[in-house]
Records
---
Amino acid sequence: MLVSGKELFQAAKKGGYAVGAFNLNNMEILQAIIEAAEEENSPVFIQASQGGIKYAGIEYIAGMAKVAAEKAKVPIALNLDHGTSFTQVVQCVRHGFSAVMIDGSKLPFEENIAITQKVIEVAHPNNVSVEAELGKIGGVEDDIKVSERDATFTDPDEAAEFAERTGCDALAIAIGTAHGVYKGEPRLDFDRLAEISKRTDVPLVLHGASGVSDEAIRKAVPFGICKINIDTELRVAFAKAVRKVVAEQPDEYDPRKILGPAKEAMKEVARAKMRLFGSAGKA
Ligand code: G3H
Ligand code: ZN
């Protein structure tokens, strides 16, 4: 069933686990995530970035996701990932999203607070949760591009003040992860995470989690990480499975026979993440 992101954040915070947030932009990815959640009896965030919404169209994303969520036997929140404009947020709220992220991390602190507060004014009365971002996560996620040089880690004092002044439901923090495929082993700043976790009990969100070791994830969750975003590992699994079919059966032209194995591959990635994050069995 479709639920507010707030419900998933609160339950994860209370239960000491993280809920996976997986990006979708087509039917097979959506089905893979939902099937994984049902097989793992896990809550889940399904989410679309602005790039995903542009690619599929908001009517398709919202329509598919809401049908899938209503049919599903587990709680599902539909999230706007890395929203950068109030207009985009309003469009998603109007189309039945149950969670939004307003990514004001590129703005000066006070402006980030202001836009987050403005989004909360329109989201909360519609039972839509609001995730904000403080500190700039590096890498590329569709239209969000942050160079290594510009990436800045989250300041623990600012995080506490930000959460207090905005009343956001969750806060995405920058502690060393980055979007996209890592060139080397990402080194998470656990001391910084511990400091943030000491100063605020707002549910924390880890972006750029594809390619982060299982050990690092297990170490991070107890510090209040309640949502963990995965996009790249699904994309890589999808592309690898499609290439395998095309290479082994070059004459195959039935999309179901090409995309079906890709869906299964993505489902297995999502299932493993739900077990790793601790959300499996928590639906
Ligand atoms: O917002 C989406 C995620 O942060 C994507 O992270 O590229 O590591 O999968 P990822
Ligand atoms: Zn992200």
---
Amino acid sequence: MKLTKQEHAMLDGKEGYTVRKSMEILVALGEIFGAKSLIKVGSVQVAGVSYHNLGDAGLEFLNELAKDGRVKVLTTLNPAGMDLENWQQLGISPEFAEKQNLVIKAFEKMGILVTCTCTPYLIGNLPLYGEHLAWSESSAVTFANSVLGAKTNREGGPSALAAAFVGKTPCYGLHLEENRVPDVHVQVNTQLTKLSDWGALGYAIGKKAENKIPYITGINAAELDDLKSFCASMVTYGAKPLFYMKGVTPGAEAQTQPRETILIEQSDLKNAYDNINDEVTDIELVCVGCPHCSINEIAKVSELLKGKKVAESTEFWVATSRSAKQLADKRGYTQTIEAAGAKFACDTCMAVAPLKGRFKSLATTSAKGCFYSRQNLMKTKMGSIEDCVNAAVTGKWNS
Ligand code: F3S
């Protein structure tokens, strides 16, 4: 890989230990993937924030980097393992909280914004069209590439951090136009009537277009919340973190429709629900906000919960960013949601919080949420926000 003088100096340690280590990571990655050079990035999104996933070895690694590592570009964080303010309310142990706070401290020392959300594009880290990024949260990577028209690979936690310390990433994969060409036409022949249908669609496309870039037709309208759910699901279930959809993806019109065509029918959505939904009736945890809830989703939950009470046997989490929660406070949604006995889970989510063994069943709007919750040994049900609120209030899955 061709390096500039300044990049050579960084690799030689002229800017300290962390920059040298970061350059070693970026050069190794670049060489593996055949990059010719490094390219400047506009921002970085770092995943791997939960102490639940990092453990002591991860914390030690971060503390080492934080000694002299300071980020060179806007860098935001993915969800942590707990609500940083109200962790007790979510049943997190003091021991876990102490370690998680040390992880956050290390990130803060590096100059990273403690945003702790998987929807950075909703809270100010909004990339420009064509901008190169080094993001590592898969749903956000897909959203950035496909809805915003930015360019990013799906980074791992360490490679995203390395890009933040250098301000650059190796130029390969989805940074190159030739690798952003759609390779399969997906014709959607079915109506999408609720939020979870977008998760089911993502499942169906992810499975049928495994490791491909879909060019999607047949969808007439898509709201922001639909797209964020779809992005999370499609990449979780197998497709590349980029799709083209007319009216959604900037520049989609300029792409040639690929010859290979996959059809998505009503039966594919049904199959997705059948595969995602387990046999379970009693629901112990309900969680909406995967990816993190927008203010509109919080408003809807608040409206649906008005005058109701969450069942004794069930916990109801509304996972969102702290910024969205602050807006919800101002608009009165928080009061209604909390009066019903539901809890905000800011800065975290059901996949990265230490929940293994704590709940046996989950109801959610999210196909991605179901995928990860199964790894936490939960039986899962996916449905609309209405279905989820109903499950929270009755403690049962009724649809
Ligand atoms: Fe976000 Fe957690 Fe879902 S990181 S996309 S809420 S699994």
